[in-house]
Amino acid sequence: MAEIILGIGASHGPPIEVPPENWDVFREKDETDRRFNYQALLKRAPKDIASKITLDRWREYYAAIQQGLAQLEDKLASAAADVIVIICNDQREMFGAANTPMFAVYAGKDFKSTPRRTGDDVPQWVIQSTQRRDFERSYPVDQALARHLVAKLIDDDFDIAVCEGMPEGVGMGHGAMFLYERLLAADKVVPVVPVIINTFYPPNQAPIRRCYRLGKSIRGAISSFAPAKRVAIVCSGGLSHFIMDEELDRRMLDAMQRKDVEAIMALPQERMVQGTSELRNWITAAGSLEPLKMTLLNYIQAPRTLAATGLAFGFAYWEQDNAFGRQ
Fold this sequence. Notes:
Elements: E1 3-10, H1 24-31, H2 38-44, H3 55-79, E2 83-89, E3 103-106, E4 110-111, H4 124-129, E5 139-140, H5 143-155, E6 161-163, H6 174-183, E7 192-197, H7 208-223, E8 230-236, E9 241-243, H8 246-258, H9 261-265, H10 279-288, E10 293-303, E11 309-319
Parallel strand pairs: 1-8, 2-7, 2-8, 3-6
Antiparallel strand pairs: 1-11, 3-7, 4-5, 9-11, 10-11
Helix pairs in contact: 5-7, 7-10
């Protein structure tokens, strides 16, 4: 039977690829972002925020982020997984307002990335943030496992959308592509099964309790998959942004490390909005990885404005706790 041998949690975001010398573009973006009240955030920003958004500090954040990613890449390589289930979300890349499923499984033969953005109006940071992506490459899917997941999740009373292919001009979103951009070597080919969650868009954003239970059902489905495959679970996204919420991030991470399901279920869902909504990917992964031991490599807050807006990054892995034998 198949076995989950490793879990990976990794934040993603443009600052991972854009050199810190260019992070002023994010400061400028935040100062005019209509999704939040920048002036109100300025009034409640920490008094020492100016010392945290210097170029030297940005370089420190960037170096810590690269270190976390390198450690997770090494972990994933050494695990030698036969297939990777990637838990991610979509931001109007695969799905649009006309069709936004709460939960979807991609079960096509393969997929390509969302097409490259081109034109004079495309910001340089957007180009830099996707510079590692091979837009022409096809990425293989383990269709047998994908269809098995669908069947078992339906048995567990989940209504699952199934994607068997992509319309012309549509590709897999950045959440899933991050696996190939930064967590797998460029020449490494590992079949994947993308599980896509609507974290962003009302009115059918996935509730926390459903995300955790989905993760548990994914674990059960994998354990009942007949081929003896080594399966890794990777979640991509978060942590809190662009309004960083350290208290929420640490509450979630601490509850996961303690395997405190009640604490996870009690997390304030009303604070999981916009980018912070991607915490749902981590919660789903935690459900699927509950028997394994979670190790947090690093938690990094990377502010970029005087209003303390920015991205919070987390890097963690789950693996067998050898001190206590098989769980």
